[in-house]
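Collaborator request, handled under Task 6.
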Amino acid sequence: MTTRPTPRSQVSAWEQEYIHVTWGGPRSIQAVRNILPQGSRILDAGCGNGRYLLPLSRHYHAVGIDISKIALVASRTYLWKSGQHSEHLVSSVTALPFDDDSFDGIVCYGVLQHLFANDRRTAVGEFKRVLSPGGFLFFEAFGAGDMRYGGTEVEPHTFLRKSGLIYHYFTIEEVEYLLGDFEIIELEDVRSQKSFRGKLYPRHMVKGILRLR
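Structure tokens returned to the collaborator:
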């Protein structure tokens, strides 16, 4: 029987992960810029080493949180080297250290996929609490049709890797249910193929822009 990882073991697993994660450069925030005006208050929920937080900080009052101190140190460094600054806090998405209605938008890219079902629901509850009425959630996570689907299953569509990290794979219907208190602006299955050693493998992401009702 597989031992269910504890919150402490998950923190340790992510600390080990970020010892080896390289920068890779900033990522596009065009989806955010298309919606939120300059100067809006935005939370990067699970900011990692700052790939989204860096460009967000150029246009918004951005705050980054993550459970990995190593990731946050890297993020601060990358932002500083680029002449940018954002507040960085050690925090889980399941217990956000902010007042109600603190943000106009939340970026949650590649984060809920690393939580168990109860924690995913708790995190969404926290997002609703800290978003202002009409605030926007920018969401992205692995889809169930992805080549990486599989491993030691600990919950439906949720797997524990040898690294100790949790990976959950969503269907679009699951996202609609989980985020049912939000109005869907965009929600799509993004499917592509990745070539590896001469073979093509499926990639699947679920991406969306949602507004708090």
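The cover message to the collaborator said: "The chain has a mean pLDDT of 96. The domain at 7-212 is CATH 3.40.50.150 (Rossmann fold). Please let us know whether this matches your experimental observations."
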